[in-house]
Each structure stands twice: as structure tokens, then as C-alpha cells.
Amino acid sequence: MTSPDDSSGGPSSSPSDGSVNGSSARVLGPVVDDQTRCVHYAGPTDVIAIRFHCCGEFYPCFRCHADTADHSLSVWPRAEFDTHAILCGACKTTLSITDYQATDACPGCGAGFNPGCELHYPLYFES
């Protein structure tokens, strides 16, 4: 499910630091550990970061983006759901939005994802 180069275009088609597969992707915001947990969501399954459509940067959550970015967020359009915009904090695998929404665990390492994150999909992804 990782891709060395997602060529879907747009400002967010590759990690902002040029890394391959997000293996050393920079995650911004008040991160509290190396698995992308943040001050807002730090439970055992809070192990993803989202590349925001508006800036191409990874943040653990919408609150981290609001706290530290100097711009408003924008949602990913459905036409760009093939973009690798989800980073597993446990193994640094990237997933497309489509693949992320279809699973409850990382296909790279098996780390479970927080099912409550689905409640926030409208903040990140066009419905």
C-alpha cells in the first residue's frame, strides 16, 4: 500500500520533506511521541497523521493544524482519494485515503487505527 511516488498531482502528492514512503515524513503540531500521537489524541490507537490538502503537511489531527498552521484547512476532494495522505505512525507506511477509509489497521504493520477517527472524516475528506 505504500508508493515511492504518488503521481496524482496537486500540492500534496509527495511528503513535504521529499522522503520515500513517508519513512521520515515530518509531522507538525504538538506531537507527544514518535508514533504521531498528539496532545489532543494520545490513545493506543491514535497512530496516524494526515497530510492536509491545504498545505501538504502532515499533522496528527485537525486541532493540531488549527493550533499551528497560519491558514484554514481544506478537505481532500473525492477525485484525489488515491493520494497517499495517511501516515501510520507505528511503521511510517503511507496509505491512500481510499485504502485508509477501507481498513481498521495498517496493512504494513497491523497497528490498529482509532475507529473514532471516522467521526472526523468530514473535516478531512469530501463526502
Automatic annotation (TrEMBL):
Residues 31-111 form the CHY-type domain. Keywords: Metal-binding, Zinc, Zinc-finger. InterPro entries: Mito_Tim_assembly_helper (IPR052604), UCP017292 (IPR016694), Znf_CHY (IPR008913), Znf_CHY_sf (IPR037274). The keyword Nucleotidyltransferase does not apply. PROSITE patterns: ZF_CHY. Residues 1-24 have a biased composition (Low complexity). Coiled coil: none annotated. It comes from the Bacteria. The keyword Transmembrane helix does not apply. Residues 1-26 are annotated as: Disordered. Pfam families: zf-CHY. This is CHY zinc finger protein. It comes from Dietzia aerolata.
